[in-house]
Amino acid sequence: MQSKDTDDNRSFVSNARRAQIVEAAIETVADVGYANASLARIAVRLGISKGVISYHFSGKDDLIAEIVRQVLQRARAYMQPRIEAQTTGPEILRAYIESNLEFMRDNPNQLSAVVEIVRATIAGAKSPFTGNRDGAVHILAELLARFQAAGDFRADFDPNAMAIAIRAVIDAAPGRLADPAFDIDRYAREAVTVFHRGTCVTGA
Amino acid sequence: MQSKDTDDNRSFVSNARRAQIVEAAIETVADVGYANASLARIAVRLGISKGVISYHFSGKDDLIAEIVRQVLQRARAYMQPRIEAQTTGPEILRAYIESNLEFMRDNPNQLSAVVEIVRATIAGAKSPFTGNRDGAVHILAELLARFQAAGDFRADFDPNAMAIAIRAVIDAAPGRLADPAFDIDRYAREAVTVFHRGTCVTGA
DNA sequence: GTGTCTTTTGACTGCATGGCCAAAAATTAG
DNA sequence: CTAATTTTTGGCCATGCAGTCAAAAGACAC
């Protein structure tokens, strides 16, 4: 094993095992919370010995990083085309919010796990995922700023503050998915409306 | 000691010690994150033995609950008069958002700690603070619904979804306070504007 | 079937945690 | 000053954690 592992460096079986472990880890985190998601618990969920995890991953950090990497890749793959299909600022913003929340609705565990991992590791200490969070905000802020300059949005809001608010509203959803009274589609509609009204020159 | 402790049940010195420990615990949580805020760390910050904490509190849960209780009480004391001074729906909503964020700005550690405690303990397992979070959302939702019925707000948004979004935007602030580039006053202004535009019939 | 390589097991380490407690120290009362 | 009480100390548990490892089990080529 080299330090820079590629998928092709590993056998089919090995890759399947890794995928299996990643999946179990996602479920475990979404289920019992990041703080309680120990290697032992993940192993029990799979019915294997926890040594197997150590064999296939260099450590817990490696496993967690792999979760974040995989989920964000899938989320990006789902969202990106939907966002890029739009042309105007308001349309893009709507597609951004909607595709984010749709992905959460259809893959509830995955983003729940990632949001929790990022939050838990960022709190207090420096984390390998700080750049991840700030990166998402920054990309959104740039987007807002671009279309603000183009006149698609009102000129007098701070793109950075707005981006933080938008992401806050989106990232609050996973933690509510467990509540049966929470209607994420309804929530998405409200979020779209609020930020449309909040960013555009004219009302709805 | 009885199980239902009142302040008056304890000596002055004892209450002072408790307050001191609570304060140190708040700072520790805000500093190193809830996950790393062990009794040992809190004790070191105070320069005392960790047994002292066990002596003054029935356990870690007790200490944490006391933090939440005290901070929320202070926050309520700050916010409530400011909110009740308003009469119309939009004014109340503005006062709600502004007073929340002002309290965070002036007491950065306190609400950082509480938000993190509530988030960390709610994730995955059932927590003594679940009702706390849902209660805050519920109160806000009722408020929105009341003034929606009165015609102060547009009639076609879901008060519950809106309340969740508003709290999400507010609760995202503490985690950003450490970032020197984050201007919480600016953030408050944008939040007020967004939700004013999002809830009212006419634009800004 | 034999030998090689991969994978899994289960026991083990070292560490940090929350909680506990007897003895020491400090405080207060008489 | 002495005795009773409150408070603090520092060491001690049991538990759960991530990570390690030798040995067993399995897969597979020949």
Quick tags:
homodimer, 204 residues, mainly alpha, Tetracycline Repressor, domain 2, 70% helix, elongated, disordered N terminus, DNA-binding
CATH class term of chain A: Mainly Alpha
Rounded to the nearest angstrom, the radius of gyration of chain A is 19 Å
CATH topology group of chain A: Tetracycline Repressor, domain 2
Tally of domains of chain A: 1
User: What's the architecture of chain A in CATH terms?
Assistant: Orthogonal Bundle
Helix content of chain A: 55-70%
* Greatest chain-chain contact: A-B, 44 and 44 residues
Task: Indicate the multimeric state.
Answer: homodimer
On the 0-100 scale, what is the average pLDDT of chain A? 92
Q: How would you describe this protein?
A:
2 copies of one chain form a homodimer. Chain A has 204 residues and is mostly helical. The first copy, chain A, has a single domain, classed as Tetracycline Repressor, domain 2, CATH 1.10.357.10. Chain A has 9 helices and no strands. The first copy, chain A, has helices spanning 12-32, 39-46, 51-56, 60-84, 89-106, 108-122, 130-149, 159-171, 184-199. Chain A binds a DNA duplex (30 and 30 nucleotides) through residues 11, 13-14, 17, 38-40, 48-52, 54-56, 59-60.
SSE blueprint and pairings:
Two copies of one chain form a homodimer.
Chain A: H1 12-32, H2 39-46, H3 51-56, H4 60-84, H5 89-106, H6 108-122, H7 130-149, H8 159-171, H9 184-199
Chain A binds a DNA duplex (30 and 30 nucleotides) through helix 1 and helix 3.
